[in-house]
Amino acid sequence: MSSSPHFLETADGGAFPSVGLGTWKIPSEVLPDLIPTAVEIGYRHFDCACDYGNEPAVGEGLKHVLDSGACSRDDLWITSKLWNTYHHPDHVRLACERSLRDLGLDVLDLYLIHFPVTLAYVPFEERYPPGWFFDPNAPDPAMKPVRIPLSDTWGAMENLVGAGLVKRIGICNFTTGMIRDLQAYASIAPQVLQVEMHPYLTQQRLLRYCQDENIAVTAFSPFGASSYVPLNMAGENENVLADPVITAIAAAHGRTPGQIVLRWAVQRGTVTIPKTQTAAHLRENLTIFDFELGGEEMAKIDGLDRGRRFNDPAEFGEKAFNTFYPIFD
Question: What pLDDT is stored for residue 5 in this prediction?
Fold first, then answer.
């Protein structure tokens, strides 16, 4: 892995920026200006997905950046993700090409399978992004699971690399068992795993396995509950940033709790993708490379693990989409 804390080296030698901007839940009207602001501050890594519904707005922001000469395309790392309704091999390339078109790009640096969740295909012209419901207008709308072998989907993902549409492929929300199965037949190994990871869900064994297998790990929702409280998927009392251990370490370093959590994420060898809509927080989240946490401090944060997963289809699938769909059990 790279010796620079600013980057994590992927298996193919790629320089994966350690801090990126996650675009989940950022309104489309904000992004055309936010992306250039982020680049000016120093961001080069943007994490996107079909399901976020804002890739055209990200693309508009990227166009401003590239047209202005603020940086070159080679300086940027853009990730997107294959949605659950496009897992059939007939639909994988179409979905990737749609994201490329929306983002205004010729190639993605990384394309991930968003969930190990396979849902019935919804044509673009019918609804895009398709979301979780098969038919939102049905009397009792629900997800419509279908059975598509992961090997079929992965083979189509590998073809994207061969076609020059993506540089690397990877996975999100996979367990070690799923990864082992994929490794047994993959011609191109997954280069990145993106999972929920924060001090209340440290996933130490999963991280160790990926590091042993040279799979880079991206930690989403690095602040834990903050993105989920408004969705009624977390309680106010589950705020990682208010945890006494975090606030005490922050005070000792003269830093914010957010900076401590992000420094912990980077120092343990993960890439992290906090979301923000303000220039002040963009700067704050990137200003974590001029200090280090001590071994005892790292251990204290590791010790906060509660196994608390906020983003779990077994929970939100049933509550929000009338469908029980466990993937982590």
Answer: 79
Per-residue confidence (pLDDT) for residue 310, from 0 to 100: 95
Amino acid present at 266? V
Cβ distance 116 to 174 under 8 Å? Answer: yes
**Rounded distance between C-alpha atoms, residue 86 and residue 122, angstroms:** 8
Residue 1: the pLDDT is 42
Task: Give the per-residue pLDDT at 233.
Answer: 86
200 is catalytic: no
- What span, in angstroms and rounded, lies between the C-alpha atoms of 133 and 140? 10
Closest listed residue to residue 303, CA positions, set 227, 238, 262, 246:
246
Q: Please answer whether residues 59 and 102 qualify as being in contact, where contact means their C-beta atoms are separated by less than 8 angstroms.
A: yes
Q: What is the pTM of this model?
A: 0.97
What pLDDT score does 227 carry? 80
Q: Exposed, middle or buried by CB within 10 Å (0-12, 13-18, 19+), for 87?
A: buried
**pLDDT value for 2:** 44
170: nearest Cα among 4, 1, 14: 14
**In whole numbers, what is the pLDDT of the chain averaged over residues?**
96
Catalytic residue among 43, 52, 86, 325: 52
Show the tokens assigned to 22: 């996650």
pLDDT on residue 226: 82
All residues at 6 or more sequence positions from 113 whose CB lies less than 8 Å from its CB, including other chains: 81, 82, 87, 153, 154, 157, 170, 171, 172, 174
Q: Which two tokens stand for residue 106?
A: 């010729």
Q: Can you list the domains of the chain with their CATH numbers?
A: 7-321 (3.20.20.100)
Query: Amino acid identity, residue 128?
Result: Y
Q: Which residues of the chain have pLDDT under 50?
A: 1-2
Q: Are 216 and 272 in contact (CB under 8 A)?
A: no
